[in-house]
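Ligand: nicotinamide-adenine-dinucleotide. Inputs:
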Amino acid sequence: MNYLLLIDGEWVPAINKKSFKVTNPANGEVIGTVADGSADDAIKAIDAADRAFPVWAAKTAKERANILHKACVLMRERIDELARVLTLEQGKPLTEAKGEIMYAADFVEWYAEEAKRIYGEIIPASHPAKRLMVLRQPVGVVAAITPWNFPAAMITRKLAPALAAGCTMVIKPAEETPLTACKLMEIFIEAGVPAGVVNLVTGKDPQAIGQVLLSDPRVRKVTFTGSTEVGKLVMRQAADTVKKISLELGGHAPFIIFEDADIDTAAEQLLASKFRNAGQTCICTNRIYVHEQIADDFVEVFAKKVQQLKVGDGLSGEVDIGPLINEQALEKVNKHVQDAIAKGAKLVTGGKRIGGHLYYEPTVLCHVTDEMLIQQEETFGPVAPIQTFEEEKEVIQKANHTPYGLAAYLFTKDLARAFRVAEALEYGIVGVNDGLPSAAQAPFGGMKESGIGREGGKAGIEEYLELKYISVGGII
Ligand SMILES: NC(=O)c1ccc[n+]([C@@H]2O[C@H](COP(=O)([O-])OP(=O)(O)OC[C@H]3O[C@@H](n4cnc5c(N)ncnc54)[C@H](O)[C@@H]3O)[C@@H](O)[C@H]2O)c1
Ligand SMILES: O=C[C@H](O)CS(=O)(=O)O
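Predicted complex:
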């Protein structure tokens, strides 16, 4: 697979004619090459998006919706091809990759429908000769910067509402997973997206491309998904031209299991929340709080399930956990495990690298304390650190004691406690007896240093719209 940049409806080489290799994290093999775009290519892409904006914005909602519906159909028809490329470059098991493609297509379907419901308002005037109204209009050219862990869904979660609203877009995908982005562009072109409406600038140097996307005054909106560290940098750079901004950043999810919870259900849901994508999702559980009354039983049940997990190449059949994305990621995971053990945690299962490549054993630690790095930093790997608690108020304080505020989980059969605790948790997403809350029709996003804005659901399209208030006088 060898791809170029998509600019103004054409696949073109980078101006510097450079390209870079894409490798399979399961074995290090080269699986393709893509253009190594730079600042000059980003400028050309913005030129194209700027030219295309008035024409795309002038299309009817139905015309935009029809194209999005077609793209969704094509994604679902090509799920096997898309999922295989996604697993090859990102590493997740094929079943998870297919799940991601379905999830990504759901955003396209949802916003194909929402495109036709961008309603305005008529406001009762306080003067008889006036008429007050509000229009919702597309923001304009959007820059999208996306991460490697969900290379399809993190693009369509932005592209679909932006196109539905009438915006045009320049996308810079993660350098680790550009091929899925290229495949998606082929689909949107085939679905009928006109030249220049969506542009793709791949590159090994995100800073050079980002610098242009974040400073060009023609870009009126930046939507970023990635680490909190880079998100802060993006926010600073976007401030100089006062761009609208959406940030979907890091998380550090607490998973609270009360004494009345069903142990097997909580263990199954924790397995899903913790080990999906080898623990490389922004809403993966990162801290586990089990009530002291059930802690021993829970750890025994959970550890047995973890030991059943199969680790290997995501393309090789029945695998539950694929490789981590790169050496740095694996080193961080191992650092968290070794730090915890050095500070008194007990290793229940796992705890080491497997073989010569980027595989790490699914790991459970108990007797974890707040002083350990794993309780403070986003691990982004297959490690489940467990500590106990006694009182509801205590565990809520612990759960909220973090700069992050993306997702949290609680398990109880007590309805009053479910609402009391869910309302007290300082997180944008709360799973109550549910370890997998994400859905295209729901608003996804965080509080505090986990982000600004929401993606998905009704809220997700507002990020790409400007409200215009029109006051008409002299109507006698
Ligand atoms: N909240 C969410 O919805 C969500 C979803 C997925 C991932 N994430 C978070 O993303 C992180 C993992 O993804 P990642 O490793 O790709 O994050 P990252 O911040 O390293 O990179 C994200 C994107 O930013 C680009 N980038 C990096 N430095 C840049 C710069 N100086 N200027 C412009 N762009 C730059 C990268 O090339 C990539 O496209 C985790 O923290 C995870 O929690 C959050
Ligand atoms: O990692 C970030 C994704 O947003 C996770 S999810 O697939 O949306 O739950």
